[in-house]
């Protein structure tokens, strides 16, 4: 059983409006999105591009609904651009999140990433970093980790389909090459399962370094189609490869048990990008909330 004060439940706006596929949910407003999140029983969210960037306005809208900001995605380009470019953008992002009260900063290396390319087959064309790129990535992440620590925050690295840090071996290499006190891991069930990794094994292995969790489920039959038809990551999303926990093929029982019996403290954040015209986001948020109550007892 989870300790009541250990975890908070959040949900990402990506089921309502998808920043990577802006036509998905373009009709859904920021207010509708956060109101439905709160109504479904969540108290936190990540930041989508419809959210106001003025922290006063954003805080007020969230406070009215008893919601808070858990974190927000940051794209790093440590392998392909001068460090200073990533550093400058990171500091702006960090300060915004700090002002909003978040404790973790989601970072993903987007150098050579194919996750945003509409026609690149995600299973065939993921990048592989050279030794030099690994070094730049690890050293850069340590520096971002130090910048986060200045504000008593943590960098949580997001392994991701279509990027250079996707597989078990790549996650292991990143964990080995970075400072365990500066760079932490974001555990995203959907990306691990879709990639063919064992989510339970990764959870057990890196538990002390996991400081943020994305709960995402995968529809097996769509995943098979994405592979066979050489679809891109985004076309896979459009096709419905991801869904909310309990609606796909991942059994979350063991995952919840391991987290509940560990020292994990932080967010469990449902993140299920799919077409809101096919999967009503409010309805799916309610389903996710019910599943978490049944399986995790919270
Ligand atoms: O955390 C995430 C943020 C999204 O932009 C991304 O593409 C999604 O798959 C994800 O896991
Ligand atoms: Co995620």
From TrEMBL:
Residues 38-293 form the Xylose isomerase-like TIM barrel domain. The gene is iolE. This is Inosose dehydratase. InterPro entries: IolE, IolE/MocC, IolE/XylAMocC-like, Xyl_isomerase-like_sf, Xyl_isomerase-like_TIM-brl. It comes from Thermoactinomyces mirandus. Pathway: Polyol metabolism; myo-inositol degradation into acetyl-CoA; acetyl-CoA from myo-inositol: step 2/7. It is an enzyme of class 4 (lyase). Keywords: Cobalt, Lyase, Manganese. Pfam families: AP_endonuc_2. HAMAP family: IolE.
